[in-house]
């Protein structure tokens, strides 16, 4: 962030912020003093949009009034409910509508996509992932390797940072892909690493993976709603994301899936099938013989989850009204840059506290991960007592994610002030 922006009073930035009004669209939990908390946990569970309750109510009404006829007569037409999410989801991730579908939950979708895009052979059987990936991704990939009769220790290759570094270098990822060459079946990494907050160069990784004949996919749990994504242009093969983090669609909410256009008309691809993936024009003939829909829709299994999807629809509408990811990202970079300035201005030695998220805005989303070498838990509890909700990741990382839809510059300054107080009290105690 520029020095000018860092020294502009937060009140002024909030007053001139074109997205400031969106804060009113969310319920802010109360802090210990009853005042709204400063919520920095959108990376884990996004806040509740006020529109969510009405969106769910509408479907309760339809169910109450119409029963099964709601599939055809509800104002929202349950039968095709998932289709109403496609256009906005496609814009969100930079995809064609054909390439996107909303369904299931994230880990379920990871498995469904790996069934199609991790097809190990005797010679090409490795799958490349981040070391220390989110546990669900680790377990999903391990179990996929076992499903193919492979030893996970042989099949899975993990990318790890260089000694003394916390994040991966793109050139090291490219080099590892080139080294694995013909043995590499699939690359599957996060769009943004959940722990460090590092955003990966998805275009470069796709190119490198394709150069050796591998499929390339991304788990966008921490990227969707956080970064401006261009999955189609980046030539990504497949991706999926959850909607309850930066997309504010409620705990355990539904999930999105991307499958590149080049696979849209490939009924021969191995996949797990269900009736909702079957050609919709003949679905209700209920006949034998699965014929997948074109595009990502051909990976659906089950009929639409109306309630989580209703909330997701209300949430996506907010993102669209805010001007989409380009507008959100502009504010996001300012919020995160300001938070970073506050932390750096503490002037603490890295032996005490350091930001492990990359300093380059192109290599991060809104989250900053702060490694606190001493008294980290105490700092976390201190923040909580001030009404600042962050999250704690063992052994000693505090994640702080200012979210452009509902966080203000004042929120960021509250964190800055609390950090300064904590460390000045600490130095007073130590002196
Ligand atoms: C949040 C998250 C998950 C959670 O998976 P669910 O199936 O939604 O419970 C999985 N992977 C990553 C990378 C995540 O960040």
From TrEMBL:
Organism: Hymenobacter frigidus
Gene3D superfamilies hit by this protein: Aspartate Aminotransferase, domain 1, Type I PLP-dependent aspartate aminotransferase-like (Major domain)
Lineage of origin: Bacteria, Pseudomonadati, Bacteroidota, Cytophagia, Cytophagales
Coiled coil: none
Function field: Catalyzes the cleavage of L-kynurenine (L-Kyn) and L-3-hydroxykynurenine (L-3OHKyn) into anthranilic acid (AA) and 3-hydroxyanthranilic acid (3-OHAA), respectively.
Residues annotated for pyridoxal 5'-phosphate binding in this entry: 106-107, 134-137, 219, 222, 244, 275, 303
Similarity comment: Belongs to the kynureninase family.
InterPro entries for this protein: Kynureninase, PyrdxlP-dep_Trfase, PyrdxlP-dep_Trfase_major, PyrdxlP-dep_Trfase_small
Keywords from the named record: Hydrolase, Pyridine nucleotide biosynthesis, Pyridoxal phosphate
Catalytic reaction equation(s): 3-hydroxy-L-kynurenine + H2O = 3-hydroxyanthranilate + L-alanine + H(+); L-kynurenine + H2O = anthranilate + L-alanine + H(+)
Subunit structure: Homodimer.
Residues where N6-(pyridoxal phosphate)lysine is found: 245
Full protein name: Kynureninase
EC number of the protein: 3.7.1.3
Keyword Isomerase applies: no
Enzyme class: hydrolase
Cofactor: pyridoxal 5'-phosphate
Gene it is expressed from: kynU
Pathway(s) it belongs to: Cofactor biosynthesis; NAD(+) biosynthesis; quinolinate from L-kynurenine: step 2/3; Amino-acid degradation; L-kynurenine degradation; L-alanine and anthranilate from L-kynurenine: step 1/1
UniProt keyword Hydrolase, yes or no: yes
